[in-house]
Amino acid sequence: MDRNTIAGLVIIFLILIGFSYFNKPSQEQIEAAKRRSDSLALVKAEQERDIRERQALALQAEQERAMAQEDESQSLQSAGFANVVSAHDKFITLENELIRLKISTRGGAVYSAEVKDYKKYNQEPLLLFADDKNIFGLQFWGNNNNVETHKLHFTPNTPDTLIVASGTSSQTLTMRLAAGEASFIDYVYTIHPNSHIIDFDIRFTNMGGIFPSNINAVDMVWDMYSPQLEKNPVKESEYTTIAYRFAAGDFDELSPRNDEVSEDVPNRLKWIGYKQQFFSTFLISEDNFLNARLSSTKLVDGENIKRLASRIAIPIDNPNQDEHSMKMYFGPNHFNTLKSYEYGFEDVVPLGSWIIKWINRYVIIFIFDLLDNKIASYGLIILLLTLIIKIVLFPLTYKSYLSQAKMRVLKPKVDAIGAKYPKKEDAMKKQQATMDLYKKVGVSPMGGCLPMLIQFPFLIAMFRFFPASFELRQQSFLWAEDLSTYDSVLSLPFEIPFYGDHISLFTLLMAATLFLSSKMNSGQMADTNAQMPGMKFMMLYMMPVMLLFMFNKFPAGLSYYYFLSNVITLGQTLLIRSTVDDEAILRKLNENAKKPQKKSKFQARLEEMAKQQQVQKKGKK
User: Fold this and answer.
1) Is residue 313 a contact partner of residue 268, using CB atoms and an 8 Å limit?
2) What's the pLDDT tens digit per position in 562-602?
3) All domains of the chain, ordered by start, with CATH?
């Protein structure tokens, strides 16, 4: 090496020594690092101790479960049931074109039910239920021991794990729970092609030595955790409940808006249904259930909406040879689909009551289905549906506007009567004079209300129809991704009380057009009494704001319908206004006033009664 290389190496060595010396940590830093190292060691030691403690607790719990299972096994063996649940459960899949069911050897019941043609709100497979916490099985006392079949091991009659029903052939699976050499309980499942319904039979064979001697019924326990299937869990919860039909034919359900509700049903039942917003699971008895105890509990675990539970009494005539025939439905709450099975399932679709229900069933659904068969876009279907309804109701709208116009042109004369009787004690005279004026010109103050009242049931019917319309589920239109839930064009970083954390554009448009429609109509209304200004304020300002808050979380299809309805109403009002002449109406009313007034028999009878009352009062004085 030359002199320059040696000099360079020496300089680099000196720089490294100097850097190390000047960057050497102080005594305080060394102690701090030591304390930090000690703290980390302590934390690690605590974590390892916690892990050991949890492992010890888990091992203890596992041992306790094993001991409990062993005790239960011994009890069940003494009751005649030798096959306690094994550690390795197996599944047999029943499938057709519409549904896919997994039957578990643990309990022999349906473990999960998938409706194949539909998806959850997040596009995952739509499972009506699939959880180890779900329970379906019989419960009874056998030789003084409590027997719960959902904990026991059933044996399938086939080694196949996939059974498919297609074409015209049905397929059957038998799950057997042995209670001795010749005593057993069979669950027999029969799946049919292209059907949401399967047959489910429970057969008891030689169970007389297992059941109590005086047994006439066994309990079926059915607990289901209803998962979130739709985008809006709040609205989904408002529709999720237990519905049921009595053997006599009446329909009822637990209140879906209560967080927790239970009910004892002492009467015979034809079926019990676990209803979700757009899907349901029904259990139907061909021989009727004796009675049931039903309960619904709201859940807030982020995965499930509610826990639905039933304890159902199944009749037993002969425990040695008895069969209870049932059916199970897994599918959508589509009105016509439910109706096609002829069990009255369609009543779970909340279409309203009395006249609202009839309008929806025989008018709205009929028109909607007619358009659905011709048009692919549900946005266009709602538009045409709205046009048809508004055109049919147009004569009533015209009559209502004409009545308002008559009241408006009479307002100067009504004001003159008010000026003639300004005192409060003359209120009766003022009212009588005003009514005489109306009678003379042939105008009824209620003439504009009756047409509006006739239209009102249609407004309520649409309010019930769209949230319950299965057809709108996951159907997009314009910016709305799903017409069956709210359309969000802007998510807010906070939540506004009673409004929500998003902005629905269809709701904004609906409120704006309602304001314009109310403003146009308010100008045509005559202030015939002191309450009219307050009513105008409510209709013009309060109603749009109230509906803006109310409808922000409602289905986009409903807001879209009311938006279209308001726009068409604006157009109809402009059309009617251009054809109605106020001066011609006033001339017609003045001509009516000149004509001799014909009294009806009823009116003449009222006047005669009034005269007689006046004569009697004078006689008393």
Assistant:
1) no
2) 999 999 988 988 888 888 777 787 777 777 666 666 655 54
3) 91-349 (2.70.98.90), 356-594 (no CATH)
